Backbone:
Protein backbone atom coordinates (compact mmCIF):
# COMPACT_ATOMS: atom_id res chain seq x y z
CA UNK A 1 0.00 0.00 0.00
CA UNK A 2 2.88 2.36 0.81
CA UNK A 3 4.43 1.76 -2.60
CA UNK A 4 1.19 2.61 -4.36
CA UNK A 5 0.86 5.89 -2.43
CA UNK A 6 4.43 6.73 -3.49
CA UNK A 7 3.50 6.01 -7.09
CA UNK A 8 0.50 8.34 -6.99
CA UNK A 9 2.45 11.09 -5.20
CA UNK A 10 5.37 10.93 -7.62
CA UNK A 11 3.15 11.07 -10.69
CA UNK A 12 1.04 13.95 -9.36
CA UNK A 13 4.18 15.93 -8.38
CA UNK A 14 6.10 15.42 -11.64
CA UNK A 15 3.64 14.99 -14.50
CA UNK A 16 3.83 17.82 -17.05
CA UNK A 17 1.75 16.33 -19.87
CA UNK A 18 -1.30 17.98 -21.43
CA UNK A 19 -3.54 14.88 -21.35
CA UNK A 20 -1.55 11.63 -21.06
CA UNK A 21 -2.04 10.24 -17.54
CA UNK A 22 -3.83 13.40 -16.41
CA UNK A 23 -6.92 11.45 -15.34
CA UNK A 24 -5.39 8.71 -13.28
CA UNK A 25 -6.88 5.66 -11.55
CA UNK A 26 -4.47 3.71 -9.35
CA UNK A 27 -5.53 0.37 -7.88
CA UNK A 28 -3.66 -2.01 -5.61
CA UNK A 29 -5.09 -5.07 -7.37
CA UNK A 30 -7.42 -5.79 -10.27
CA UNK A 31 -8.15 -8.48 -12.87
CA UNK A 32 -6.69 -6.58 -15.81
CA UNK A 33 -6.20 -2.82 -16.12
CA UNK A 34 -7.48 -3.26 -19.71
CA UNK A 35 -10.95 -4.10 -18.32
CA UNK A 36 -11.10 -1.05 -16.07
CA UNK A 37 -9.87 1.24 -18.86
CA UNK A 38 -12.55 -0.22 -21.16
CA UNK A 39 -15.29 0.54 -18.66
CA UNK A 40 -14.04 4.14 -18.48
CA UNK A 41 -13.80 4.41 -22.28
CA UNK A 42 -17.42 3.22 -22.62
CA UNK A 43 -18.31 6.23 -20.44
CA UNK A 44 -16.26 8.48 -22.78
CA UNK A 45 -13.51 9.27 -20.29
CA UNK A 46 -11.05 11.94 -21.60
CA UNK A 47 -8.26 10.83 -23.91
CA UNK A 48 -5.13 9.85 -22.00
CA UNK A 49 -7.02 8.49 -18.97
CA UNK A 50 -4.72 5.92 -17.39
CA UNK A 51 -5.37 2.97 -15.10
CA UNK A 52 -2.44 1.62 -13.10
CA UNK A 53 -2.51 -1.50 -10.93
CA UNK A 54 0.09 -2.71 -8.49
CA UNK A 55 -0.84 -6.33 -9.29
CA UNK A 56 -3.10 -7.96 -11.86
CA UNK A 57 -4.79 -11.29 -11.23
CA UNK A 58 -5.67 -11.84 -14.89
CA UNK A 59 -3.22 -9.71 -16.85
CA UNK A 60 -3.40 -10.53 -20.53
CA UNK A 61 -0.88 -10.45 -23.35
CA UNK A 62 -0.89 -10.60 -27.13
CA UNK A 63 -2.14 -13.59 -29.07
CA UNK A 64 -4.34 -14.85 -26.22
CA UNK A 65 -1.51 -15.30 -23.75
CA UNK A 66 -1.57 -14.29 -20.12
CA UNK A 67 0.72 -11.59 -18.69
CA UNK A 68 2.44 -12.23 -15.40
CA UNK A 69 1.94 -9.12 -13.31
CA UNK A 70 3.38 -9.27 -9.78
CA UNK A 71 4.01 -6.38 -7.40
CA UNK A 72 7.04 -4.37 -8.54
CA UNK A 73 5.85 -4.11 -12.14
CA UNK A 74 4.10 -1.25 -13.89
CA UNK A 75 0.80 -2.39 -15.37
CA UNK A 76 -0.87 0.52 -17.11
CA UNK A 77 -3.73 0.87 -19.60
CA UNK A 78 -4.39 4.13 -21.40
CA UNK A 79 -7.58 5.18 -23.18
CA UNK A 80 -7.01 6.70 -26.63
CA UNK A 81 -9.30 7.86 -29.44
CA UNK A 82 -6.86 7.80 -32.37
CA UNK A 83 -7.61 8.53 -36.01
CA UNK A 84 -7.12 5.40 -38.14
CA UNK A 85 -3.66 6.33 -39.54
CA UNK A 86 -2.45 6.93 -35.96
CA UNK A 87 -3.79 3.54 -34.90
CA UNK A 88 -1.42 1.88 -37.37
CA UNK A 89 1.46 3.76 -35.77
CA UNK A 90 0.62 2.82 -32.16
CA UNK A 91 2.94 -0.21 -31.98
CA UNK A 92 5.80 2.07 -33.09
CA UNK A 93 4.79 5.00 -30.86
CA UNK A 94 4.32 2.88 -27.75
CA UNK A 95 7.45 0.75 -28.06
CA UNK A 96 9.57 3.82 -28.84
CA UNK A 97 8.08 5.61 -25.80
CA UNK A 98 9.15 2.70 -23.60
CA UNK A 99 12.62 2.63 -25.19
CA UNK A 100 13.01 6.40 -24.58
CA UNK A 101 11.78 5.98 -21.00
CA UNK A 102 14.39 3.29 -20.33
CA UNK A 103 17.03 5.58 -21.81
CA UNK A 104 16.11 8.18 -19.15
CA UNK A 105 17.38 5.60 -16.64
CA UNK A 106 20.48 4.97 -18.78
CA UNK A 107 19.25 1.58 -19.92
CA UNK A 108 19.83 0.65 -23.56
CA UNK A 109 17.03 -1.47 -24.98
CA UNK A 110 15.81 -2.68 -28.35
CA UNK A 111 12.49 -3.51 -29.96
CA UNK A 112 11.37 -6.91 -31.19
CA UNK A 113 8.69 -6.49 -33.84
CA UNK A 114 6.02 -5.48 -33.34
CA UNK A 115 6.29 -4.04 -29.85
CA UNK A 116 8.19 -6.09 -27.32
CA UNK A 117 10.99 -4.18 -25.61
CA UNK A 118 14.10 -6.18 -24.77
CA UNK A 119 17.29 -5.60 -22.80
CA UNK A 120 20.14 -7.85 -23.89
CA UNK A 121 17.66 -10.10 -25.72
CA UNK A 122 15.39 -10.53 -22.66
CA UNK A 123 11.90 -9.09 -22.44
CA UNK A 124 11.42 -6.13 -20.10
CA UNK A 125 8.12 -4.87 -21.52
CA UNK A 126 5.09 -6.16 -23.40
CA UNK A 127 2.43 -4.06 -25.10
CA UNK A 128 -1.17 -4.97 -25.88
CA UNK A 129 -3.36 -2.80 -28.11
CA UNK A 130 -7.08 -3.56 -27.96
CA UNK A 131 -9.61 -1.75 -30.15
CA UNK A 132 -13.35 -1.34 -29.87
CA UNK A 133 -14.97 -1.06 -33.28
CA UNK A 134 -18.66 -0.31 -33.82
CA UNK A 135 -20.21 -0.41 -37.30
CA UNK A 136 -16.80 -0.06 -38.91
CA UNK A 137 -15.96 2.94 -36.72
CA UNK A 138 -13.17 2.94 -34.13
CA UNK A 139 -14.78 3.86 -30.81
CA UNK A 140 -11.63 3.68 -28.69
CA UNK A 141 -8.28 1.98 -28.23
CA UNK A 142 -6.85 0.67 -24.98
CA UNK A 143 -3.07 0.77 -24.96
CA UNK A 144 -1.79 -1.65 -22.31
CA UNK A 145 1.84 -1.58 -21.22
CA UNK A 146 3.45 -4.03 -18.81
CA UNK A 147 6.95 -3.08 -17.67
CA UNK A 148 9.09 -5.21 -15.34
CA UNK A 149 10.56 -2.72 -12.88
CA UNK A 150 11.34 -3.90 -9.36
CA UNK A 151 11.34 -7.65 -9.20
CA UNK A 152 13.83 -10.41 -9.59
CA UNK A 153 12.64 -12.53 -12.50
CA UNK A 154 14.73 -15.45 -11.17
CA UNK A 155 12.11 -15.88 -8.43
CA UNK A 156 9.46 -16.69 -11.03
CA UNK A 157 10.26 -19.87 -13.01
CA UNK A 158 7.63 -19.12 -15.68
CA UNK A 159 9.60 -16.08 -16.90
CA UNK A 160 13.07 -16.56 -15.39
CA UNK A 161 14.76 -17.55 -18.65
CA UNK A 162 13.12 -15.09 -21.03
CA UNK A 163 12.58 -11.90 -19.03
CA UNK A 164 14.51 -9.22 -17.19
CA UNK A 165 13.65 -6.16 -15.10
CA UNK A 166 14.96 -2.63 -14.64
CA UNK A 167 16.11 -3.33 -11.05
CA UNK A 168 18.05 -6.37 -12.21
CA UNK A 169 19.89 -4.30 -14.81
CA UNK A 170 20.53 -1.30 -12.54
CA UNK A 171 21.22 -3.20 -9.31
CA UNK A 172 18.79 -0.91 -7.45
CA UNK A 173 15.07 -0.34 -7.20
CA UNK A 174 13.47 2.37 -9.29
CA UNK A 175 10.45 4.45 -8.19
CA UNK A 176 7.56 3.14 -10.29
CA UNK A 177 5.88 6.56 -10.28
CA UNK A 178 8.94 8.12 -11.88
CA UNK A 179 8.98 5.50 -14.64
CA UNK A 180 5.25 6.08 -15.24
CA UNK A 181 5.74 9.87 -15.39
CA UNK A 182 8.48 9.58 -18.04
CA UNK A 183 6.41 7.05 -19.95
CA UNK A 184 3.33 9.33 -20.09
CA UNK A 185 5.50 12.20 -21.28
CA UNK A 186 7.30 10.17 -24.00
CA UNK A 187 3.98 8.71 -25.15
CA UNK A 188 2.35 12.11 -25.41
CA UNK A 189 5.30 13.56 -27.37
CA UNK A 190 5.24 10.77 -29.93
CA UNK A 191 1.42 10.65 -30.13
CA UNK A 192 1.29 14.39 -30.85
CA UNK A 193 3.98 13.92 -33.53
CA UNK A 194 2.04 11.12 -35.22
CA UNK A 195 1.81 13.00 -38.54
CA UNK A 196 5.60 12.46 -38.85
CA UNK A 197 4.98 8.91 -40.06
CA UNK A 198 8.27 8.39 -41.91
CA UNK A 199 10.43 9.65 -39.04
CA UNK A 200 8.61 7.51 -36.47
CA UNK A 201 8.77 4.35 -38.61
CA UNK A 202 12.44 5.02 -39.30
CA UNK A 203 13.23 5.38 -35.58
CA UNK A 204 11.21 2.26 -34.84
CA UNK A 205 12.98 0.13 -37.46
CA UNK A 206 16.33 1.62 -36.43
CA UNK A 207 15.86 0.32 -32.89
CA UNK A 208 14.65 -3.10 -33.93
CA UNK A 209 16.80 -6.15 -33.34
CA UNK A 210 14.67 -8.16 -35.72
CA UNK A 211 15.81 -6.66 -39.05
CA UNK A 212 18.50 -8.67 -40.85
CA UNK A 213 17.96 -11.75 -38.65
CA UNK A 214 16.79 -15.24 -39.55
CA UNK A 215 13.41 -15.52 -37.86
CA UNK A 216 10.42 -17.75 -37.32
CA UNK A 217 7.03 -16.03 -37.09
CA UNK A 218 3.99 -17.67 -35.62
CA UNK A 219 0.88 -15.87 -36.89
CA UNK A 220 -1.63 -18.10 -35.14
CA UNK A 221 -2.59 -19.81 -38.43
CA UNK A 222 0.86 -20.69 -39.71
CA UNK A 223 4.55 -20.67 -38.95
CA UNK A 224 6.76 -18.83 -41.41
CA UNK A 225 10.57 -18.87 -41.57
CA UNK A 226 12.80 -16.47 -43.43
CA UNK A 227 14.94 -13.36 -43.10
CA UNK A 228 13.44 -10.16 -41.67
CA UNK A 229 14.15 -7.56 -44.37
CA UNK A 230 12.38 -4.31 -43.45
CA UNK A 231 9.31 -2.57 -42.11
CA UNK A 232 6.67 -1.57 -44.67
CA UNK A 233 5.14 1.92 -44.73
CA UNK A 234 2.15 0.54 -42.81
CA UNK A 235 4.34 -1.01 -40.11
CA UNK A 236 4.17 -4.61 -41.33
CA UNK A 237 7.22 -6.86 -41.17
CA UNK A 238 8.63 -7.77 -44.59
CA UNK A 239 10.19 -11.24 -44.68
CA UNK A 240 12.16 -12.90 -47.43
CA UNK A 241 11.11 -16.54 -47.51
CA UNK A 242 13.56 -19.34 -48.24
CA UNK A 243 12.47 -19.42 -51.91
CA UNK A 244 13.35 -15.71 -52.25
CA UNK A 245 9.81 -14.32 -52.32
CA UNK A 246 8.87 -11.41 -50.08
CA UNK A 247 5.95 -11.61 -47.68
CA UNK A 248 4.36 -8.96 -45.41
CA UNK A 249 3.30 -10.04 -41.92
CA UNK A 250 0.59 -8.01 -40.17
CA UNK A 251 0.74 -9.65 -36.72
CA UNK A 252 2.59 -12.49 -35.10
CA UNK A 253 5.14 -13.66 -32.62
CA UNK A 254 8.77 -13.54 -33.74
CA UNK A 255 11.53 -15.88 -32.62
CA UNK A 256 15.05 -15.02 -33.70
CA UNK A 257 16.77 -18.17 -34.97
CA UNK A 258 20.35 -18.93 -34.09
CA UNK A 259 22.76 -18.45 -36.98
C1 LIG B 1 2.50 -9.08 -24.46
O1 LIG B 1 3.73 -8.97 -24.47
O2 LIG B 1 1.96 -10.14 -24.82
C2 LIG B 1 1.66 -7.91 -24.04
C3 LIG B 1 1.58 -7.74 -22.55
C4 LIG B 1 0.74 -6.54 -22.12
C5 LIG B 1 0.61 -6.45 -20.62
C6 LIG B 1 -0.10 -5.21 -20.18
S1 LIG B 1 0.02 -4.96 -18.43
C7 LIG B 1 -1.13 -3.68 -18.51
C8 LIG B 1 -2.22 -4.15 -19.46
N1 LIG B 1 -3.16 -5.01 -18.74
C9 LIG B 1 -3.18 -6.25 -19.22
O3 LIG B 1 -3.91 -7.16 -18.82
N2 LIG B 1 -2.27 -6.37 -20.21
C10 LIG B 1 -1.58 -5.12 -20.46
Residues:
Amino acid sequence: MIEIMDTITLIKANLRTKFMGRELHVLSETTSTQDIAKELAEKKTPEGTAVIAERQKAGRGRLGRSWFSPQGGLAVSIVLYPALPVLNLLPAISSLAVLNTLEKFEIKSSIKWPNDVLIGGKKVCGILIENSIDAGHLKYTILGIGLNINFDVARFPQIAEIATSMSLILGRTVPIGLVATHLFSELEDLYLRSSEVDEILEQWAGNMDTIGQRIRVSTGNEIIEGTAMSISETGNLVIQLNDGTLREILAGDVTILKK
